[in-house]
Amino acid sequence: MNNPSLPSGTVTFLFTDMENSTKLAHEYADEWERMRARHHDILHDAIESNHGYVFQIIGDSFSTAFHTAGDALKAAIKAQVYLKNEVWIKSPIKIRMGIHTGAAYVGNMEDRSGGYIGYITLSFVQRVMSIGHGGQILISNASYELIRNELPDKVTLQNMGNHHLKGLPNPEQIWQVNVPGLQHEFPPPSSSKVLSNNLPVQLTSFVGREKEIGKVKDVLARHPLVTLIGPGGTGKTRLSLHVAQEMLDQYSDGVWFVEFAPILDPILVPRTTAITIGLRDEPQRPIIDILCDYLQKKQLLIVLDNCEHLVDACAQMAHKILQAAPNVRILASSREVFGITGETTYRVPSLELPELDFMAVESLMEHEATRLFVDRATSAVSTFSVTDDNASAIIQICRRLDGIPLAIELAAAKTRVLSVDQIAKRLDDRFHLLIGGSRTAMERHQTLQATIDWSYNLLSPAEQILFRRFSVFVGGWTLEAAESVCSDKNTTSKTPLKAYDILELLSQLINKSLVATDERNGEIRYQMLETIRQYANEELLKFGDTEKVQTRHLDYFTRISEEAEPKLLGRDQLIWIEHLEHELDNIRAALEWSSKSGHVIAGLRLAGALWRFWDVRNHWSEGRERLTALISRPEAKVRIRERAKALYTAGLLAQIQNDHASAGPLYFEGLAISRELGDNQTIGYFLVGLARTWRRFRRDQDAGSLLDESLEIFQQLNDKWGIALLLEVRGNVALEQDDFAAAGSCRAESVKIYRELEDKISLSFALTGLAFVMVCQDNYDQSVSLYEESLTLFREMGHKWGIAHSLNALGEVARCQGNYDRAKFFYEQSLSTSQEIGDKARIGASLHNLGYVSQHHGDYHQAVKLFNEGLIMAREVRDTLAVAVCLVGLAGQVQAMGYPKRAAQLFGAAQSLFESSSNRFPPADQIEYQRNLAATRTKLDEATFKAAFAEGQMMTIDESLNLALKPVEEM
User: Can you point out the beta strands (E) in 168-238?
Assistant: First the structure.
């Protein structure tokens, strides 16, 4: 549900419910459905004729929404009048009605709210209706204020006094609508009695937390002590108060809120609790005994707030109360757990955040964090509104503030003096920006800095040191990383941390809600909210430990990357790829520190060792950029193995991106360094890399000699992986020479070696290479089997480029077989995956292949569009062969549309580009080329065809592109 016409923002709701419906259904079973249908018709007419919207019907209960309170009142009156005047054959139907106005927003949910977000408002109107009787219309005071001066003629409002509505802490004033001709006298409203409590009135709306409310209530029903834990500012107090309000009627002896924020002496904990409940001291008796005796037979809920600085005293008191009073429940809020028997903790999460960087205004209000920002900004500036222009900045603010309610409220308050964009841009200095909260709030809730200061100052010196050091981790960390990076190797510091101290100190920081845990694949990772991490990092800087700890961090992840490198070529490669993916943010931070601090050699080691990871996870551009920046640094201009390795990785990534012109110089320099160092294994890999480059520049003889030299090296070293890699390249050379037997033999041998090595990633690529040889020999069944195996392996490894490649290849086989529907299925999947990773070359290939599908389905204009889009992509990535195949597709299309001369020119241009490319024409495109070229020849005399073809051959690549992209209407 997401009807743009539905009222949103400030909404008046009218809820209705039939009196004694179950009894009527049983007594008048034969007539019941007719009676019920007539009831529905009357309500629909009354509501819709007064501009209302029925957004949910459950049984015989209607939930409706109106833009104005006046329309809701008119609809209610009309419905009651029609129901009273209806001639009911068996028994009259009476319904009770409730009207209330409050904040609610249209969402996409299909749940009990019927699509509306606004728990407080929806529950309020439900409870107003529920205390009424059949034929009665009750309205809340909020709606009364809106309509009291605009009542319909002769309609009056009768003050029904204050009534306690279920779950609300304070009595609410209720009004009855009196209409001439309708019943005025009813039994007293069936509201609950006002229960004893001291819950404070909340002056701001409670936004979101519907799931949390339900979970806490459920846990509290099953456990005697529930402690809400979480960092400062996450809204523990507000949540505990709202849960307490919801459960008022479940505790006959009351609900009592005990605030410990101003209490500093632990001795005062039981005394403060007793006084709050209404007890007095007795001479010679400990106050805890008085408290326990009083509570022994009570059914009561105690809410203990802000317990972290008195946690031991609170824990002792709670333990004694729970032993003495079996019907008492305690709901505590603290940044640290009590750690006693009977306690269950509930970690209060941050507010739910949008996952996208931009979304429509309506969708923005479906998320708790952005809804809170808008609510508080509107309170600060009455004219504030969400627009398409500021929605993205609101999302950015909420996400960068980790969904922490206090931080969001402080940011929203700044809308008095700053635009939303200005607030977002200043969040790098959030601790100076987010100040100036409510003067009546606790001091530690008036600034973001203060609320974290409160937690930090409660830590022991050792906990503070570890807390600061954790700030160097970005995106989380493991226990092993913490022990390596954060422990001291000597005892010269005042408070040295040993590796064996880390686990216990880490546990304390978790208990105190400054560190969170996250289990992934059986491994526990630890993390801080980014706001807390930034605070800790500023403290680390103040104490002068940044250089030391950041360098340890760099050394640790350099060691991890070098440990991972050989593992990425064997059976455990998926485990290590996932491990590196989890640590990617840390790796990025370490690389940035290596450049910033001058530890460039460590950066070269780190980035160079990750060549397989950069490739498999499609981080080609990032890997190249980081390596290029490091290689160009003056400190890196040394003829050492680390530089050579970094040059190899940079060259490999350049080749993957089809930038062979950049790869060549990188390989040349790296090869020279390796020869100077006598590093034969590295020499072998540089030779293979250079051979690939020479192939692209048509220097096949040079490529062959390089491959011969590398083979000799790999055989001497018994480097099976290097031999398999070399065989792949040799298979490519043989394929270009149409030596299918040699190509198949080389590629089959490389497949065999990779299987033995259990290198699934390399095996996947080798399988696609062998499958391509099968396609060239029209062995389609075998090729499909090989491509499907490669696709399975790529998916297992999470190699999205490989997935897109195999899907596209399966589409090519289907196209060779003339099965265009099957081809379209694979091409579209390949396109989607390629777009996900932003691979322009593969996107272009999928688009031009889909162009052929459209061509064969007779959709010529769509075919031209797709060929043109593919051509633009191919030119952007400088792939000459891809440009050529796109020109062939366009040539076939324009001849089919009646422009054979232009087609001949395009065929000529494609032929010229193909001859300058080192790759083989894909078999499916070769079939299209021959078919469409033959068709073009039949449309022109030989002389005209040859002249046009030759004209195309003489064109530069830019001239051929201009010709291809020229609209057919201009031909």
Answer: 172-178, 225-229
Alpha-carbon gap, residue 286 to 271, rounded angstroms = 9
Structure tokens at 140: 């809340």
Q: In this structure, what DSSP letter does residue 132 have?
A: -
Distance of CA 783 to the CA centre of its chain: 38
Q: What are the Cα distances from residue 477, in Å, to 474, 510, 524, 573, 611? A: 8, 13, 9, 20, 22
Nearest to residue 686, comparing CAs of 661, 659, 714, 658?
714
Amino acid (1-letter code) at residue 47 = I
Residues 358-377 as b/e (b if ≥16 CB within 10 A, e otherwise) read ebebbbbbbbbbbbbbbbbb
Helix (H, G, I), strand (E, B) or coil at 813: helix
Tell me which residue of 595, 609, 611, 671 sits closest to 639, measured CA to CA: 671
Number of other residues whose CB lies within 10 A of the CB of residue 782: 14
Q: Give the C-alpha separation, 576 to 828, whole Å.
A: 31
pLDDT tens for each residue of 61-111:
999 999 999 999 999 999 999 999 888 877 888 999 999 999 888 876 455
pLDDT, tens digit (0-9, with 9 covering 90-100), for 484-520: 999 998 766 677 899 999 999 999 999 888 999 888 7
Q: Degrees (nearest 5) of the Cα angle 700, 701, 704?
A: 85
Q: Quote the tokens at residue 912.
A: 């010229």
Q: Quick check: 393 and 424 in contact, CB under 8 A?
A: yes
Give the dihedral sign, CA 44/49/55/61: negative
Residues 333 and 237: beta-carbon distance below 8 Å:
yes
Strand, helix or coil for residue 337: coil
